[in-house]
Each structure stands twice: as C-alpha cells, then as structure tokens.
Amino acid sequence: MNHRDILALARRIESPTPVGTQVWHVWNEGAGRPLILLHGGSGSWTHWVANVQGLSAQRAVYALDLPGFGDSDLPPGARDVDGLYQAVAQGITQLLGPGPHDIMGFSFGGMTAGFIAAEQPDLFAQMVLVGIPGLGLFGPRLALRGLREDMTRDEQRDILRHNLRMFMLRHDASITEDTIDMQEHNIARDRLRRRRIAGGDPLIERMSLWQCPVHTIWGEYDALYGDNLAKIPAVMSRCNHVGFHVIPDAGHWVQYERPEAFNEVALRCLGPV
C-alpha cells in the first residue's frame, strides 16, 4: 500500500484553534487508549506511514500535522518549535482532553513533545522519543544538496533521493518512488524552513522538568548523531529515562526503514492498553 491508500483508511479531523486549524489523521478511533504521533521536520503524518496500521491494531492512533507543516496552519509569528509547541498542547487538550496522554514524537516532533512536557508535565503519561535532536550531540556534517527553482522535476527528485539517503535512511533500497513522492509533497508544504533550535541543546535544560517516564528509540546508523549515539543515555539521565532502544541497521527515519522491529519495540515501551 502506498501512502494514499493508508491515508484513505483514516478519519481526517480539522480542529480549529485560536492560532489556526490543526489537521489530525486518526486510525481505529475509539479503540483503546489514544496514542498521539508527532512527525519530524519538513514532514507530516507520512513520517508514520509504515507504522500506523501496526500501531492502530492495538491503539487508537492520532497523527497530527504539526502547525506549519502538512495541512495544518502556521501560527502567526512562529518560526521554530518555540513558536508552535503551545499551540500543539492546546490542540491536544482541545481534541482529547487534559490527559495524561501517551505521545510518541519523531525528531522535531519529539523535541516539540519535550518542550510541552517541560511546561505542562501533567499532559503526558509517557513519552516515546524517536531520533530526537536538541541534546547538544552532533554527528559529522552531512553532504546535503539544495533544491533550486530552475531545476527540472527529475533533477529535484534526484536531490531528494540523495538527501534522504544522506540524512534519513541507511539503505538505497529503502527509498522508493512513493518515498520521494511523500518527501516532495512534505517539503512543498514546509513553512518553517529556517528552523535553528534543534542545532543546539534546548532539551538539556528542560528534561529535568519532565515528570513522566521516557523511552527513546534510535536507528543504529542515525546520521544526526553518528558515533555519538552511545553518549545519549548519559545525557538522558537528567530525566526519568526508562529505556534506550537501538534498532539495528536503520538510519534516522528508523520507523520507516525498519517498521516491524520499530512497532514491536514501540508497543513494548507503551505497555498494555
């Protein structure tokens, strides 16, 4: 199934908030404890495209297009995570109530969850953070290429394939035409392209304020961290870090590259409904 087929199985919820409409995609609504999914930067719900069916077999899955990404509105004046996390918290409470809720965030979405948990610690029962930035640890500089308007579409798609391979995925075989279709569509709708906060250590000062249990999941070859992956448990010791899980032979977008292994670990982290 491609991403359009999987989207067709979801219910779309357009949730108006004071700072714009937030769009949610929901699978298996009403079945068990809700699981909130937040995607990564330059993404949308499609960062979970390989996982929603497996996860929704046990949980009601609520995947948000973060404000400024996908189909959700950009809050006025927002330029980075610090300008949108409060809107996300408001949207969660408005749609699902005051919690506490289970949340899983990938990359930028995991950082967003971390910002929320520092300010509203009672909102989450537990967090599963996947390949999160903002820990002050960095891998080698990535050889990414820029897109230009004067390029043909084929040339642009070649660059998307290259960048996916350099940053997001370990193996060429993981990148299909549907992968590139999703990336092309997501980048076109990214209205927060000047994000910079993830390049620092904003979660270090905030994680001591988190009150819920935290699991982290990583791809063994996450290009964001390179050889520094082994240093992460020491950094995470500032919070209630109950599990450090590494999926073998996977890159940064671990849940897409190794969906079965990822879903098994994620559901084990979340525990019984």
Spell out the key features of this protein.
273 residues, 8-stranded mixed beta sheet, 8 strands, 19% strand
In brief, what are we looking at here?
With 273 residues, this protein is an alpha/beta fold. It has helices at 3-7, 52-56, 85-96, 108-119, 153-168, 177-188, 202-206, 232-236, 254-257, 259-270; strands spanning 11-17, 20-27, 34-38, 60-65, 101-106, 124-130, 214-219, 241-247.
Structural features, described:
- This protein is of the alpha/beta class and 273 residues long.
- The protein has one domain (3-270): Alpha/Beta hydrolase fold, catalytic domain (Rossmann fold).
- It is built from 10 helices and 8 strands.
- An 8-stranded mixed sheet has the order 1-2-4-3-5-6-7-8, sandwiched between helices.
- Strand 3, helix 2 (52-56) and strand 4 (60-65) form a beta-alpha-beta unit.
Provide mean pLDDT, rounded. Answer: 95
Would you count the extended β strands for me? Answer: 8
Strand order of the largest sheet: 1-2-4-3-5-6-7-8
Number of domains: 1
Estimate the strand proportion. Answer: 15-25%
Which structural class fits the helix and strand makeup?
alpha/beta
> What's the CATH class, please?
Alpha Beta
Could you tell me the radius of gyration in angstroms? 17 Å
The gross shape turns out to be globular
